[in-house]
Amino acid sequence: DVEEAARERARAARGPMKFEIEAVSETHVILSCDGSEVLNRIMEAGETERARCESVVRVSAADAGAVRASVNGQACLPLGEPGTRSFGYTIRIDDFPRICPVGGRDEDVRP
Fold first, then answer.
1. Looking at residue 62, what DSSP letter applies?
2. In this model, does residue 110 exceed pLDDT 70?
3. What contacts 2, CB < 8 A, 6 or more positions away?
4. For 37-94, how does the pLDDT look when each residue is reduced to its tens digit (9 = 90+)?
5. What whole-number distance in Å separates Cα of residue 11 and Cα of residue 24?
6. SS3 call for 38
7. Strand, coil or helix: what is 23?
């Protein structure tokens, strides 16, 4: 129900964000968590990296369509269109429920 989903988002917003990024094809990724770089390398298809971030996640990818991101198990909206660069895609503790909504990406079939 809608109220339960709202309560779940509020509970999740109080704790650290469990961020996950998965490469669906090879691309260079830079990931920073609370201002500290935690990843800066080429990720191969099928690879997954995880980080716990208290307040801010920033992701850059050479190919925005080559990665999928999630926070607390909820799929995030795409970083951008396939074949385009994504620079500094930012997810904050107070806005991740809008960027990574309960129920995922709905009709958006982009990776």
1. S
2. no
3. none
4. 999 999 999 999 999 999 999 999 999 999 999 999 999 999 999 999 999 999 999 9
5. 30
6. strand
7. strand
d(CA 109, CA 78): 9
The amino acid occupying position 104 is G
Quote the CA–CA distance of 60 and 101 in Å, as a whole number. 21
Residue 5: pLDDT band (50, 70, 90) is low
pTM, two decimals, is: 0.80
In which residue are the tokens 């996950």 written? Answer: 20
Task: Provide the Cα torsion 25, 102, 100, 20; round to 10°.
Answer: -50
Cα dihedral sign, 99-102-106-111: positive
Q: How far is CA 48 from the centre of its chain?
A: 12
